[in-house]
Amino acid sequence: MPERRKVIIVTDGDLVAGKTVQVAARNIGARFISLTTGNPTPISAGEVVELIKKTPHDPVVIMVDDRGKRGFGKGEQVLEFVAQHPDIEVIGAVAVASNTSFTEGVRVDESVTCDGRIVDGPVDKLGHPEEHGHIHLEGDTVDVLNRLDIPVIVGTGDTGKMDFADDYCKGAPVTTKALLEILNRSEGNG
Questions:
Q1: Cβ contacts of residue 181 below 8 Å, gap of 6+?
Q2: Most buried of 45, 89, 106, 150 (most Cβ within 10 A)?
Q3: pLDDT, tens digit, for every residue of 84-113?
Q4: CA 156/CA 166 separation, integer angstroms
Q5: Pairing relation of β-strands 110-112 and 153-156?
Q6: Is residue 40 reached through a cis peptide bond, with omega within 30 degrees of 0 on the bond before it?
């Protein structure tokens, strides 16, 4: 039986986020599937799985996005399908904060702030730590994470933005750190 492919999911998909995740994935030696960039996610869950299986090495980084849609949107459909696929092991997710209303939010294991610090709780869209007692990171494609068995969830502000703190021209430092935290915390990564 072939080994399951190791995947990291980022819950954002706009073009700026895509450029940022591409740089961050390269920084950690991961493969990025650029066809998952889009707002909402432009390809089907089945297509995403086929592309993951064709990549030459792990880990593979993909993006999912709902474009702020309330309820169960396209990005969440892709996320759930990939996370439950028998040939894939999702080793972690980067939960991206947004200003979306009417969201349940998700508890994160930790977050990376806009200035690169690791904090225990969630951050807001700008990458600032939420006030004490605020326990959920809110974003438009994060609610589905609550019902999936994903071992590491790292929060960040808006990918590639945060007042230029995560700009891909600067090397995407916040997203890179979030991906590294997932790698470091995942099993079998020494």
A1: 110, 112, 118, 152, 154
A2: 106
A3: 999 999 999 999 999 876 778 999 999 999
A4: 10
A5: parallel
A6: yes
